[in-house]
Design brief:
By secondary structure, this protein is mainly β. It has one helix at 2-18, and strands spanning 32-40, 46-48, 55-60, 67-75, 81-95, 98-104, 109-117, 121-126, 131-136. Strands 1-3-4-5-6-7-8-9 form an 8-stranded antiparallel β-barrel.
């Protein structure tokens, strides 16, 4: 019995100490341009994205950190951005140590949980348990000469 309890305690401690919790004060890291790098389905299927035709722009209200917008755009090689002008507004919900983005548009409502957030990467999980991994977008500009 002793031989079983010690490994369980060690594994539990490792899982708890390695888990990252997103803090509401870190939400300013979300501001800017992001591109999806990977999608994981609930069945464990992983889809890697090499090149993205669209990029997500996030902007969090810098004072309240309670609301924001997301826009999608297609970057152009000359540095411009093509967009359809649609803004997806969201509110930020801090619930029992988890941060959620609750979206509402004229067409749909949905919620995503931010499971990881740093200045260069973030991850969200939607209501269908699909996980989206993002990285900060770096634009490539080609000048004609």
């Amino acid at each position: 019995m002793k031989n079983i309890i010690l490994p369980i305690i060690i594994v539990s401690f490792t899982i708890i100490s390695c888990s990252t919790q997103v803090d509401k004060n870190d939400l300013s890291n979300l501001n800017g341009d992001w591109e999806i790098t990977q999608v994981e389905t609930p069945e464990g299927k992983i889809l890697d994205y090499g090149v993205n035709m669209t990029v997500d722009y996030f902007e969090i209200d810098s004072i309240s950190l309670n609301q924001g917008i997301r826009k999608k755009f297609m970057p152009q090689f000359d540095g411009t951005r093509l967009t359809n002008g649609i803004e997806e507004k969201f509110i930020v919900v801090d619930s029992i140590g988890s941060i959620y983005l609750k979206y509402k548009t004229d067409y749909a409502t949905w919620t995503e949980q931010i499971t990881a957030l740093s200045p260069t990467e973030f991850t969200v999980k939607n209501e269908n348990d699909i996980v989206y991994k993002y990285k900060k977008y770096e634009q490539i500009i080609i000048n004609k000469e």
